[in-house]
Amino acid sequence: MRTQLRRAGRSVARYVRSAPGTYIWLAALLVTTVLLHHMSPDFESDFLRQRSTNIHELTTNPLRVLISSAFWIDGGGWLSYAVLYSVFHAQAERWLGTARWLLVAFTAHVLATYLSEGLLAWGIRQGLAPQSAVNTLDVGVSYALAGVIAVLTYRITPPWRYVYLAGVFAVYTPPLFISRTFTDVGHFTAVLIGLACVPVTWGRGPAWDPAETVRNGWSRWRGKHPR
């Protein structure tokens, strides 16, 4: 049991070291999440709004809020993001390299933010949204995550690639017609941006074949458990 635990620990450590940017970001999110839990609800709301990529902050402090908003999670669901970062961000960083992975994440975060907030600004001018929406709370890392999830489409060989892509659209398309918020538009836009980042994936080695992985795993199992 101790040997197995040590092996598991070494495997986890190797995985974390293979995606340093992902886990540094995740550690920063843990720190900010803990800080939020020590704030009163009123103070937390005002604090996050000053770091939010809302219309007011984007027109006065765009660079500051675009960066700072990526280090706070509204609602404090850090554990769920730890899983999502390990499944998607870490895999993308290991495949693309830290620089290219960060380029995809930052591009999706910035462009999806501006498009969704631009749509909200249009809605305010048309009287479809209240004027107070210029100060709406909009922090978090979900646009960057959506872009990275999308770019991982190119990590998988056909026909499994299209199954994965269908799953991505199945998650991000329905909200456009159900809740129809500006953040839903932002998430869908981030997916399209991630798919448009295909040049970033060129030269990163052959795509992953899930069927081959299953066959190899089955062969190893049969080798260890002969009849």
Kindly summarize this structure in a few lines.
By secondary structure, the protein is mainly α. The protein has helices at about 1-15, 20-35, 40-50, 55-60, 60-70, 80-95, 100-125, 140-150, 160-170, 175, 180-195, 200, 210-225.
Layout: helices, strands, pairs:
Layout: H1 2-17, H2 20-37, H3 41-50, H4 55-60, H5 62-68, H6 78-96, H7 98-125, H8 142-151, H9 160-172, H10 174-177, H11 182-196, H12 198-201, H13 210-224
Helix pairs in contact: 2-6, 6-7, 6-8, 7-8, 7-11, 8-11
What can you tell me about this protein's structure?
The protein has 227 residues and is mainly α. The chain is 73% helix and 0% strand. The chain has 13 helices and no strands. The longest helix is centred in the middle third of the chain and has 28 residues. The radius of gyration is 20 Å and the shape is globular. The two termini are 26 Å apart.
Helix content: over 70%
Describe the global form: globular
Uncertain regions spanning at least 5 consecutive residues: none
The count of helical stretches stands at: 13
**Which band does the percent of strand residues land in?**
under 5%
Q: Which value, in Å, is the CA radius of gyration?
A: 20 Å
- Largest β-sheet summary: none
Q: What is the tally of beta strands?
A: 0
Cα end-to-end separation: 26 Å
H/E order of the elements?
Answer: HHHHHHHHHHHHH
Helix-strand makeup class: mainly alpha
| Average residue pLDDT | 89
